[in-house]
Amino acid sequence: MTVIDDARSSRRNHRFLDCAVAAAVFAYNLPVQGFAVPDSAVSWIAYALPVGLCLPYVFHRRRPLSMFSVIVATAYLQLALGVELLVADVMLVPALHAVARSRPPSNSVPAAVAVAVWTITMTMPSMERYSMSFGDVGLLVLIVAIAWLTGMLARVRNEYVHSLQLRAEQVERDAAAAERTRIAREIHDIVSHSLSAIVLLSEGAAGTVRQDPDAAAAAMKTVRDTGREAMTEMRSMLTVLHSDDPVDRVPAPGVAQLDGLVERSRAVGIPVDYRVTGEPVELPPGLQLVIYRVIQESLTNVGKHAGPEVRAVRVHLNYGPATIELTVADDGRGTDSSSATGWGLMGMRERVLAQGGTFDAGPTADGFHVAVSLPAEAVR
Q1: Are 379 and 283 in contact (CB under 8 A)?
Q2: In 133, 216, 226, 340, which residue has its Cα 20 to 30 A from 188's Cα atom?
Q3: Conformation bin of residue 273: beta by default, left when phi > 0, alpha when psi is -120 to 50
Q4: What pLDDT was estimated at residue 275?
């Protein structure tokens, strides 16, 4: 059975229960109806009163205010006709509860006052006949107050549960948005780096195909390998997205793949000087991915923005006692921060900040630099 089927079944059960309550009160009222009808009352109107008091209750879930208005109007008509208390008058209590449960105090408070006034006005003249005391009248008014109060508490509870549901849905939407951002960032890093390398290699091969066919062929082989590697990474990401089994998840690139990244960058003409200092430690996969992507994106930006005059690109990864420092600096023509917008610098910054680190990037006197600092507590 689906959720929709459950909801439909629940609504049917509610309707059956509401009809059963109204029918039971109406049926119980019939044997005593004649004792409450004065001789002066028009008999068919007097006997129609229980219908007006009971039948509207069937609609209290869909039209609570309309339901209450009909019932309370019938009750005041009963008072005007001089008809004494009926068993069906008890329907004022659940009717008031329904209004308090489903409507704000601006509606439920006047409804409670109307029922309380009717109760006092209806019972006071009959106190002697029914051997009632003022305490009995007060008890009836207390029942009215309890019906209103329990309805109000139910309304507050329902609103609280609804707010929790909305909050849970918002958390789910935020998580989905964060996941989409993460996926978009990964796709950008994979595609941007690979395409930049392919473009640079293709341009180099096109310029040397006649003068040095062997070099052009080697460049095109690197283009093929770069494209295949990008396809493998994309396929791995899609596998992760479509599989809930951790066994199927392909490890993300990390510090172990940095040597290969540097070699591929050198193959496309970027003169990378890669150094590692300090005592290397085992890093969590998430942090390794951050380091890899920052270096990858920085080298991609060098290929796109530094220009052919770049002579050195220094990549330095230092394992310190308190922090892990990463710098990427080049001596090319560089670019200003405002022109390096989009997923590049923003994606690097978001990755680093998510690990509790600091990120700085911008032009220098002789090029462009990226500096990252990550807390050692996050990796040990």
Answers
A1: yes
A2: 216
A3: beta
A4: 94
Q: Give per-residue pLDDT as tens, 353-373.
A: 888 899 999 888 888 999 999
Q: Encoding tokens for residue 262?
A: 């540097």
**pLDDT more than 90, % of the chain:** 29
The full 3-state SS of the chain, as one line of letters, equals CCHHHHHHHHHHHHHHHHHHHHHHHHHHHHHHHHHHCCCCCCHHHHHHHHHHHHHHHHHCCCCHHHHHHHHHHHHHHHHHHCCCCCHHHHHHHHHHHHHHHHCCHHHHHHHHHHHHHHHHHHHHHHCCCCCCCHHHHHHHHHHHHHHHHHHHHHHHHHHHHHHHHHHHHHHHHHHHHHHHHHHHHHHHHHHHHHHHHHHHHHHHHHHHCCCCHHHHHHHHHHHHHHHHHHHHHHHHHHHHHCCCCHHHCCCCCCHHHHHHHHHHHHHCCCCEEEEEEECCCCCCHHHHHHHHHHHHHHHHHHHHHHCCCCCCEEEEEEECCCEEEEEEEECCCCCCHHHCCCHHHHHHHHHHHHCCCEEEEEEECCEEEEEEEEEHHHCC
Q: What is the pTM of this model?
A: 0.55
Architecture of the domain delimited by 254-380: 2-Layer Sandwich (3.30)
pLDDT of 2 reads: 52
Report the candidate in 52, 76, 80 with the shortest Cα–Cα distance to residue 66.
52
pLDDT in tens, 12-29: 677 788 888 888 888 877
Does 193 score more than 70 pLDDT?
Answer: no
Is the pLDDT at 323 greater than 50? The verdict is yes
pLDDT in tens, 82-118: 887 888 899 999 999 999 999 999 999 999 999 999 9
Name the residue with tokens 């430690």.
Answer: 281
List the domain boundaries for the chain. Answer: 3-132, 254-380
